Amino acid sequence: MLKFKFLLWAFAQMLQRKIKTDPDCARYAKPKRLVFQIRTASGAGRHFVIEHGVVQSFAGLTKTAQFTLSFTNAAKGFEILSAKDAQAAFLRGVGSKDLIISGDFREVMWFQGLTAFLQPPKVVSPYDRTAF
Q: How far apart are CA 17 and CA 95, in angstroms?
């Protein structure tokens, strides 16, 4: 449980750092106002507020979330959120019902776009003929 809670706290810090250091990310986040939460089925979690390019996170849940990512338990949440293949891990989690997404799916899609800024850039090998 502690790793999951720390990951949620660190997630907000990473998003805020990316917004401050990446002008494209800052432009993407600046006009948005979003309240969402990430939690476990048992009720542990954090809620997040993104407003005018500032990310804040708060311990506990909110009744005003525009969407919620709910994991069956903290271990599954940590596993999915920290996976290197984040998008595929999310899809596997939804398929296995280890992750339930509720709320406004347009906001979820916007959020996926924001988290894409956290992915490391793809490096193309000079030996990879499929890249050309």
A: 31
Q: What pTM did the predictor assign?
A: 0.86
The pLDDT tens digits for 10-61 are 999 999 999 999 999 999 999 999 999 999 999 999 999 999 999 999 999 9
Residue-wise DSSP of 19-75: HHH-HHHHHHHTT-EEEEEEEETTS-EEEEEEETTEEEEEES--S--SEEEEESSHH
Task: Set out the domains of the chain in order of their start, with CATH numbers.
Answer: 2-119 (3.30.1050.10)
Q: Please, are residues 78 and 4 in contact by the beta-carbon 8 Å criterion?
A: yes
